[in-house]
């Protein structure tokens, strides 16, 4: 291996494990890390994910080796998880003179959260069991263990499904690591891995991440009219699910009551708010990931026509399993009296003196209410010609048209983004 690459790798590990989290500063070190590990394992983040298969388990999808490798490219996610694991191990080492036992389930091809740290820690008291469902990942991990000369730390490297793997008799772990999730705990088996493996965690042990908190918020509708920009803070409705050691043990005992529930919509928020769902992750103690820091924390905001909010009524939620778990939300049903809808004529002018705007706005509102109304082909032609004359892209205009709740809002967007000159 090229000595320059090795030196860059060692420098990257030093920064990732010890420097404050900063996506801009750390990004070059992430690149050095992934390039070095990719060279050793022959599994590069540049490979086409379509050439590699996911593994469907009874409790969720185990993503393919290449997709798992690509997770390393998320700078803050990688750094904060690595630092959380490091802190948990080092605190445990200080608290006891015994060996500490670590279980890492779902290693991916790089074992990113642990293998690089073991290579620089050089502490034989750290005893590790590694599990992954993909044979390609197991092969890659074995290459890394040999390359970094850390065989003294390895108890076992096992190709198995972590949701049903059985530990040796009387085996207990001080730390159990698994980062097998997406935002809102969709699709992947994080919940069920912890629910199964927690039986092997010592009484004083810790899961990593320590806590995954899913919350529902009422967020102000961001009007397309800049003059109405809303700076009101989000309103917390409820933490509707929390995965931690207590929840894992309840699930292990067969209590899945937390998988369903209701949240009450306060009065007065029917029209000006949307429902937003967030994922907050406490990796270990102060090492945390929150909204928009990585793909695991991307919020989901429901559009008004998808989530009808009615004050005083409840939203029902349920974690649907198995195979591809997901939280499903049921909203109060908006009672719509179906009448025959008659749109204004296309030729009718709006407040800006333009034809078609009123007509197309009414068409969009009807569509959001589930009313299907055909638009005459000649009218589509006139509409696209109008957009061309105003130098407005069709897609962006359609999005704005659909998001606007009042015609004045769309007209403000239109006058701001077009070449229209108002007299």
What is the top-level CATH class of the largest domain? Alpha Beta
Q: Percent range for helical residues?
A: 25-40%
What structural category arises from helix and sheet content?
Answer: alpha/beta
The succession of helices and strands, N to C, reads: HHEEHHEHEHEEHEEEHEEEEEEHHHH
Number of helices: 12
Shape: elongated
Characterize the biggest β-sheet: 5 strands, parallel
CATH level-4 homologous superfamily of the largest domain? Vaccinia Virus protein VP39
Task: List the defining traits of the structure above.
12 helices, 5-stranded antiparallel beta sheet, 5-stranded parallel beta sheet, alpha/beta, 15 strands, Rossmann fold, elongated, 423 residues, single chain
Account of the 3D structure:
This protein has 423 residues and is an alpha/beta fold. It folds into two domains: 3-212 and 231-254 and 280-292, 3-Layer(aba) Sandwich (Rossmann fold); 357-417, no CATH class. The chain is 34% helix and 22% strand. It is built from twelve helices and 15 strands. The chain has a five-stranded parallel β-sheet with strand order 5-4-3-6-7. Strands 8, 9, 11, 12 and 13 form a five-stranded antiparallel β-sheet that branches. Strand 1 (55-57) and strand 2 form a beta hairpin. Helix 1 crosses helix 2, helix 2 packs across helix 4 (75-95) and helix 7 crosses helix 8 (245-252). It is elongated. The N and C termini lie far apart (70 Å). The model is unreliable at 48-52 (pLDDT under 50).
């Amino acid at each position: 291996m090229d000595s320059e690459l090795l030196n860059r790798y060692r420098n990257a590990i030093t920064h990732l494990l010890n420097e404050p989290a900063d996506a801009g500063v750390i990004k070059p070190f992430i690149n050095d890390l992934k390039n070095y590990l990719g060279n050793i394992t022959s599994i590069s983040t540049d490979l086409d994910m379509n050439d590699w298969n996911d593994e469907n388990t009874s409790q969720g999808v185990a993503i393919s080796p290449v997709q798992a490798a690509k997770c390393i490219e998320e700078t803050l996610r990688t750094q904060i998880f690595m630092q959380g694991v490091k802190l948990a191990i080092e605190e445990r080492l200080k608290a006891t003179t015994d060996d500490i036992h670590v279980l890492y389930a779902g290693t991916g091809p790089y074992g990113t959260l642990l293998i690089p740290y073991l290579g620089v820690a050089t502490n034989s008291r750290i005893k590790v069991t590694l599990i992954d469902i993909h044979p390609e990942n197991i092969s890659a991990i074995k290459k890394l263990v040999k390359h970094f000369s850390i065989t003294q730390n390895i108890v076992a490297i096992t190709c198995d499904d972590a949701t049903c793997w059985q530990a040796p008799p009387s085996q207990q772990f001080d730390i159990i690591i698994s980062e097998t999730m997406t935002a809102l705990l969709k699709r992947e088996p994080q919940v069920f891995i912890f629910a199964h493996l927690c039986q092997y965690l010592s009484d004083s042990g810790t899961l990593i991440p320590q806590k995954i908190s899913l919350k529902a918020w009422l967020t102000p509708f961001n009007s397309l009219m800049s003059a109405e920009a809303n700076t009101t803070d989000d309103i917390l409705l409820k933490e509707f699910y929390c995965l931690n050691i207590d929840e894992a043990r309840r699930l292990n005992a067969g209590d899945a009551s937390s998988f369903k529930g209701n949240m009450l919509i306060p009065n007065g928020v029917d029209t000006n708010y949307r429902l937003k769902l967030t994922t907050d992750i406490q990796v270990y103690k102060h090492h945390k990931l929150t909204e928009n820091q990585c793909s695991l924390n991307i919020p989901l905001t429901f559009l008004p026509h998808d989530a009808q909010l009615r004050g005083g009524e409840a939203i029902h939620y349920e974690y649907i399993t198995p195979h591809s778990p997901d939280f499903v939300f049921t909203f109060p049903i908006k009672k719509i009296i179906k009448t025959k809808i008659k749109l204004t004529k296309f030729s009718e002018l709006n407040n800006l003196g333009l034809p078609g705007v009123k007509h197309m706005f009414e068409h969009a509102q009807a569509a959001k209410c589930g009313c299907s109304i055909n638009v005459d082909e000649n009218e589509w032609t006139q509409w696209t010609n109008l957009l061309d004359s105003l130098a407005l892209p069709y897609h962006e205009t359609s999005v704005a048209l659909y998001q606007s709740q009042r015609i004045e809002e769309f007209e403000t967007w239109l006058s701001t983004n077009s070449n229209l000159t108002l007299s």
